[in-house]
Amino acid sequence: MMDRTSQEAEIIRLLRANGEGHVSGQTISRTLGISRTAVWKHIVSLRNAGYLIEGSPRKGYVLADRHPVPFNSVEITSALDTDLIGREIFFYESIDSTNTKAMELARSGAADGTVVVADGQCKGRGRLGRGWYSPPGVNLYTSIILRPAIPPERAQAMTLLSAVAVAETVGRFSPVRPHVKWPNDVLIASRKVAGILTEMSSETDRVNFMVVGIGVNLNMDPESSDETRRVAASIGKENGRDVERTNFACTLYSVFERWYKTSLKEGFKPVYEAWKGYFDGVGREVRIKGFTNTEGICLGIDGEGALLVRRPSGDIERIISGDVSFSTL
Amino acid sequence: MDLKDIKALYRFLKSTDIVELEVEDSRGRVRVKRAEAVSEEAVRIVTPAAPVEEKKEREEAKEEKSNIKTITSPMVGTFYRAPSPDAPPFVELGSKVKSGQVVCIIEAMKIMNEVESEFTGKVVAVLVENGQPVEYGEPLFNVEVE
């Protein structure tokens, strides 16, 4: 039995497939295996969600093709090709933070692969309480709930995995190849296009759940806000045309799922290799602000993803957290 | 559409779980809506996972008879007492904590790991400074259990 969102997504797929032709209520009812009254209920709900569905008593329903494609859970579900990530979607027009919501849902038992998506966030969060600029209508703000059967110390590899999944997805929509900045910022032309914040709940020997929060600048104008001017990039502005948000979100879930499933089965080695392919920091001067400050030449990452830095004294330091800044090339 | 039709519609609506109905024919259109309609957007069903009860026999044996228990770090990382630099700490010296309550965050590789207290009691020692690196198993807090 499909849930409500899946049924409505199926109706939208049927209507789109028929273009300007009408689809009868009976056809919908037969295809979905639901009653005519249930069909009508879904049509009402879809209209309330902003779909212009015209109905005529004899011919059936038609989706007016002139309306802009909305961004919502029905659209995402109708375009999704995954079988884990995004199978359960919590969509919000506006929310404080998708990560805060996802942590709440995870605590109350939400399933592996559940996602939270918002059109806009009023308290988008970054590392250590920093904000993530989240205007409505233009970008992607999503959090993925994961329940990997791995011990907490291996969970760190998930940071590089999410960076690789986001970078690969950005690369499919951007003519400019993205880079990653250790550990998981994604940049286009040295400006930040995506940020990832992972929160985790664990016990000594196992991960209860992880929430991977991903913000991607798709269509905003970074120059329009003091928070993003000169430090952020957006794919749409780089391309000179808008990125379709549903398409981007579904591609991201699909790419993420592929890396996630492969890694749980075969280990994280391919993730590390792919990550190195996106990293352009080796040999550059790097500065890390943390409990102690470190400066030196970046040597790359070790087998656990930690950043290796050779200090002027010749000592090699292993960095696992802190604010990292690389000298510009 | 006349009164008889509308009455029939009303009876039909009452016999179903439909909250809103719109019917159109050559003579016009009528919409019937239930007053007690519940917004469907507000209803989401989440299947809660079965609560996990983990026995703490190992720790209890180790701590012998003392009522002072130690919360240790589950991983190598950086210790934070608060979710952000300008937020109040999760717990202070003397705070009452409950089992399962978040007491600090350990960060490694940009994963913020919420560390929960395994004990219910009072925080009698904060053993690590905010922002300091910690090792796996390093003592973080002492809790006097009730």
Number of domains of chain A: 3
Number of helices of chain A: 9
- Using the 3D structure, state the CATH architecture of the largest domain in chain A: 2-Layer Sandwich
Query: Per DSSP, what share of the residues of chain B sits in E-state strands of 2 or more residues?
Result: 25-35%
**Spatial strand sequence of the major β-sheet of chain A:** 3-4-5-9-8-7-6
Distance between the termini of chain B: 73 Å
Strand segment tally of chain B: 10
Rg estimate of chain B, integer Å: 29 Å
What's the CATH first level of the largest domain in chain B?
Mainly Beta
Q: Provide mean pLDDT of chain B, rounded.
A: 77
Kindly identify the CATH topology of the largest domain in chain B: OB fold (Dihydrolipoamide Acetyltransferase, E2P)
What kind of assembly state do the chains in view correspond to? heterodimer
Structural class of chain A: alpha+beta
CATH topology type of the largest domain in chain A: BirA Bifunctional Protein, domain 2
Number of domains of chain B: 2
Low-pLDDT residue intervals, each spanning 5 or more residues of chain B: 36-63
Q: Mean pLDDT of chain A, rounded to whole units?
A: 93
Low-confidence stretches of chain A: none
Overall description:
The complex is a heterodimer of chains A (329) and B (146). By secondary structure, chain A is an alpha+beta fold. Chain A has helices at 4-17, 25-32, 36-48, 73-79, 98-107, 157-173, 235-239, 245-266, 269-278, and strands at 53-56, 60-63, 89-95, 115-121, 140-146, 179-181, 185-188, 191-202, 207-216, 285-289, 294-301, 307-310, 316-319, 323-326. The relative contact order of chain A is 0.10. Chain B folds into two domains: 3-46; 52-145, RNA polymerase II/Efflux pump adaptor protein, barrel-sandwich hybrid domain (OB fold (Dihydrolipoamide Acetyltransferase, E2P)), CATH 2.40.50.100. Chain B is built from two helices and ten strands. Classes of the chains: A alpha+beta (329), B mainly beta (146). The interface between A and B is large, with 44 and 39 residues.
